[in-house]
UniProtKB/TrEMBL annotation:
Pfam families: SCFA_trans (PF02667). It comes from Lentibacillus juripiscarius. It comes from the Bacteria. This is Short-chain fatty acid transporter. The keyword Transmembrane applies. The keyword Glycoprotein does not apply. The chain crosses the membrane at residues 20-41, 53-74, 94-125, 137-161, 181-203, 247-265, 271-287, 308-330, 342-359, 420-441. Keywords: Membrane, Transmembrane, Transmembrane helix.
Length: 442
C-alpha cells in the first residue's frame, strides 16, 4: 500500500495537469474519437461542440451557488461553532481521517451538493484542530464520500425512474425505490463502502512516508474563520444603518424559512440541489444577522468559483460531441454486445464509468445510456432495476478521478486537482470490488 500510494501520488503530481487543461485535453480526445469511431466530419464535430457548449449554464450556476452559499453559511458564528464541536471528535491525524470520511459519506448519501460542501468545511475545521494531519489526504477523504451519492437519497437515476412520467415509462414502467435505492444489492454496496472507506483512507495515512506528508499548517485553512468586525452606530449614515439592520435580515430570512417549510410539506423529503442552495442562502442571511456582514461574506465567497464558471461550458461541449456524434451510443452498444443476463449490470457499470469521463452528469448520462441499456436488459432477461443502478454506480465511481465534481471541494479547500487525485485513484480501484460483487452476486 505504501508503494502504491506513493506511486500514484507521485505520478499524478508530476503528470496530471490543472483541471482546466484536463477539460481541454478531453475535448481534443472526444473530437478525434468522434471523427475516427463515428465517421463524423471535423466540421460536424465542431458544430456539435459549439452547439452544446452552453447547455450546462443552469447547472454551472447551481454548483457555483453551492460553493458560495456553503461558504456564506459556514462563515457564520453559529455554523462555525457546530463544525468546531464535531471536529473535537478528532484528536489525532488518524481520527481526523476517519471522522471526515465517515461524515462526508453520510452527508453525500443525504444530498450530493450538501455532502460536497459539508465534507470540505468539516475537513478545514478538523485541520485547524489537528494541524499535523496530511491536509491533501484529508481533503481526498472528504471527496471520497462523494462516491456514495448515487446510491443515496438524491440519486438522480433511481428517483427519475420512480416517477410516472419518465422518458422510459412505456418500456419499464415506474420502478419503485425499494428495487433500486433500498434494494439488497444497493444497501450492501453503500454500507460496505461507508464502513470501510474510512479504514482505507486511514490505512493510506498510516503507510504514507512522513517526508511526503503535507501538514495543514502549510495551507490556508483560515478562510472560514467567520471573524466579524464591530460596527458603531454613531458614525453611520442612514444607508449604513440599513446595511447593518438586523430587522431587514430577519424579515427576508423568515420569508425564506416559510418557503422551505412549505416546500417540504408539499413535496416530502425532496432535498434537491435548488432547495439545498435555498436553505444555505437564507440560513446564511439569518445567521449573519445584518446585510453588511452577509454581503462581506459573499464578496469573499465568489473568489472560489472561477474554476467552475469557466470549466463547465467545456464539459457541456464535450457532452454535445459525445451525444450528437453517437460516440456514447457506440461505447454502450459494444459493452452490450459482450454481455449476458448475469453480466450486463457489471458491463453497464464499466461502460457508465467510461462515459462519465465525458458526460459527468447523472441525469445526462442516463439520457444517453438508458435507452440503450434498458431495452438490452429486457431482451436478454437481465434485471432492469439493477441495470439502471449500474449506470448510477458507474457515474459515481469514476467521479473519483474526474475533476468535474471535485471543483467545488477544491475551491473551498484551496487545492488543485493533482493534490488529491493520487489518493482517489486507489479509492477508485478499491471501490470496484464491492460494487462488482453487489451487481453480480447480491
Amino acid at each position: 500500500m505504501k508503494a502504491l500510494t506513493s506511486f500514484f501520488d507521485r505520478m499524478v503530481q508530476r503528470y496530471l495537469p490543472d483541471a482546466f487543461l484536463f477539460a481541454i485535453i478531453l475535448t481534443i480526445i472526444v473530437f478525434l474519437l468522434g471523427i475516427g469511431v463515428t465517421g463524423s466530419t471535423p466540421v460536424e464535430m465542431v458544430e456539435y461542440w459549439g452547439t452544446g457548449f452552453w447547455d450546462l449554464l443552469a447547472f454551472a450556476m447551481q454548483m457555483s451557488l453551492i460553493v458560495v452559499t456553503g461558504y456564506i453559511l459556514a462563515s457564520t458564528p453559529f455554523v462555525r461553532n457546530i463544525l468546531q464541536k464535531i471536529s473535537t471528535l478528532a484528536n489525532t491525524p488518524g481520527q481526523a481521517i476517519l471522522l471526515v470520511t465517515f461524515v462526508a459519506g453520510v452527508a453525500c448519501l443525504i444530498n450530493y451538493g450538501f455532502g460536497l460542501v459539508a465534507g470540505a468545511l468539516l475537513a478545514i475545521h478538523v485541520a485547524k484542530r489537528v494541524p499535523s494531519v496530511d491536509y491533501r489526504l484529508l481533503m481526498a477523504s472528504a471527496y471520497s464520500g462523494f462516491l456514495l451519492w448515487h446510491g443515496g437519497f438524491s440519486a438522480s437515476i433511481p428517483l427519475l425512474i420512480a416517477t410516472d412520467d419518465h422518458f422510459l415509462m412505456d418500456t419499464i414502467g415506474a420502478i419503485p425505490v425499494t428495487e433500486t435505492i433500498f434494494s439488497g444489492f444497493n444497501l450492501f454496496i453503500v454500507l460496505f463502502l461507508l464502513l470501510t472507506m474510512p479504514l482505507l483512507n486511514w490505512y493510506m495515512m498510516r503507510t504514507r512516508d512522513p517526508l511526503t506528508n503535507t501538514d495543514a499548517t502549510a495551507w490556508n485553512t483560515e478562510a472560514y474563520d467567520g471573524t466579524e468586525e464591530a460596527v458603531t452606530a454613531e458614525s453611520m449614515t442612514p444607508a449604513e444603518r440599513l446595511e447593518n439592520s438586523q430587522i431587514l435580515s430577519m424579515l427576508i430570512g423568515i420569508l425564506g424559512l416559510v418557503f422551505i417549510v412549505y416546500h417540504f410539506v408539499q413535496n416530502g423529503f425532496d432535498l434537491n440541489i435548488n432547495i439545498v442552495n435555498f436553505i444555505f442562502l437564507f440560513l446564511g442571511i439569518l445567521f449573519h444577522r445584518t446585510p453588511r456582514r452577509f454581503l462581506d461574506s459573499v464578496t469573499d465567497a465568489v473568489k472560489n468559483v472561477g474554476g467552475i464558471i469557466i470549466q463547465f461550458p467545456f464539459y457541456a461541449g464535450i457532452m454535445g460531441m459525445m451525444v450528437a456524434s453517437g460516440l456514447s451510443q457506440a461505447m454502450s452498444e459494444w459493452f452490450v454486445s459482450i454481455s449476458n443476463d448475469v453480466t450486463l449490470p457489471l458491463f453497464t457499470f464499466l461502460s457508465a464509468g467510461i462515459v462519465n469521463f465525458f458526460v459527468p452528469s447523472g441525469g445526462g448520462q442516463w439520457a444517453v445510456q438508458g435507452p440503450i441499456m434498458i431495452p438490452a436488459a429486457l431482451e436478454i432477461g437481465a434485471d432492469t432495476a439493477k441495470t439502471a443502478m449500474a449506470v448510477a454506480w458507474g457515474d459515481a465511481w469514476t467521479n473519483m478521478i474526474q475533476p468535474f465534481w471535485a471543483l467545488p471541494l477544491l475551491a473551498i479547500a484551496g487545492l488543485k486537482v493533482r493534490d488529491i487525485m493520487g489518493f482517489c485513484v486507489l479509492i477508485l480501484f478499491y471501490s470496484f470490488i464491492p460494487i462488482a460483487i453487489g451487481l453480480l452476486f447480491v
